[in-house]
Specification:
heterodimer; A: 216 residues; alpha/beta; Rossmann fold; 7-stranded parallel sheet; 9 helices; 8 strands; 21% strand; B: 113 residues; alpha+beta; hypothetical protein PF0899 fold; 3-stranded mixed sheet; 3-stranded antiparallel sheet; 2 helices; elongated
């Protein structure tokens, strides 16, 4: 006999994500789910962003890491609330782990919560955390083929940051080919070409993220 | 490796349903995956087998249907299938699109007795 089910397999994650989204909306907190490969510059971007926007906005951070609290330690100097989620081998965060740690934050005292997802371009894109939007970071050292290989992330991201542009002369990264692939997948997404090391291009990113926080 | 987590959630639904429907054996599980989810069927099958070991579903066939990506153009209303990652309307050239199909992660039904 056949039993009809017709159910989203990730229902449990999706329902919890909607609950998180509702809670954050009621507290007027914007949550940004930052997704990239390992080493693309998520933590460094957060360092630069806290340096400049830390005095204007109340920032909180959730650090998703397979193991260790090294990324969180780099952000300690900003005196902001940070919670680490160690996934112990898991390749992505999910909405249940986010929901659990939200209790550790005083949400009434936050404007924006950055979630640094586990470094990985594919798995984190599939799990809704209840975020306001996803942010994709790619660095020039990784190669220009990433949008074509991982279309879901680049399709769903509200903005794409191309980091380490100071390294362009030393890589075979073809920016035109990268932008062409990206435009084919997501013709409308804003792209910021930045270097978190030299500071190049960061002003435009700060302006954009500030606008997003103000419009939340 | 998101396949493992999805396989775990799927096996939980299968086993809950089997108990509720008093099935002593599950012979087939019918699921649909959108192309955008980027599931590798072989890895998924392997992960599912691990999850249902020593259960009523341990010999169930997995029937995976892959659903192509379809978008609707918000500017001209055209519904079209995405080929080769080109998310551009094939009539008016707009990139102002919304997804219609291709992100499914569905269990449709299971078969057993």
């Amino acid at each position: 006999m056949e039993i009809k089910i017709m159910k989203n397999i990730l229902d449990r994650n999706q329902n919890k994500a909607e609950e998180v989204r509702g809670l954050l909306k009621s507290k007027n907190v914007m949550m940004v789910n930052i997704i990239s490969s390992p080493g693309a510059g998520k933590t460094t971007l957060l360092e630069r962003t806290c340096e400049v926007l830390g005095s204007k906005f109340r920032i909180g951070v959730i650090e998703g890491d397979i193991t260790t609290d090294r990324d969180a330690r780099r952000l300690k100097k900003f005196n902001i609330p940070i919670v680490v989620i160690n996934t112990e081998g898991g390749c992505h965060l999910d909405s249940h782990s986010i929901s659990k740690v939200l209790d550790s934050f005083s949400l009434d005292d936050l404007d924006v919560l950055f979630v640094e997802n586990v470094g990985n371009l594919i798995c984190p894109s599939q799990f809704d955390l209840g975020e306001t939007f996803k942010l994709a970071i790619i660095s020039t050292a990784e190669g220009d083929d990433k949008p074509a290989k991982y279309p879901m992330l680049f399709r769903e991201a509200k903005a794409v940051l191309l980091n380490k542009i100071d390294l362009l002369p030393y890589t075979n990264f073809n920016k035109l080919s990268f932008l062409k692939d990206l435009r084919n997948i997501n013709g409308q997404v804003p792209v910021f070409e930045i270097s978190c090391t030299s500071g190049e291009g960061l002003k435009a990113w700060f302006k954009w993220i500030e606008e997003q926080i103000n419009a939340r | 490796m998101h396949e493992l987590r999805i396989a775990e959630d799927l096996s939980a639904i299968v086993l809950e349903t089997a108990i509720r429907e008093k099935l002593s054996i599950v012979s087939k599980v019918n699921i649909s995956f959108g192309q955008m989810i980027q599931i590798v069927p072989e890895i998924f099958e392997f992960a599912f087998r691990e999850c249902v070991k020593n259960s009523v579903a341990e010999n169930a066939d997995l029937n995976i249907e892959i659903i192509p990506i379809k978008m609707k153009c918000i500017d001209c209303g055209n519904d079209f299938k995405i080929e080769e990652n080109l998310f551009v309307c094939n009539i008016c050239g707009s990139t102002n699109l919304e997804i219609r199909e291709g992100k499914e992660l569905f269990i449709k039904s299971l078969e057993g007795e």
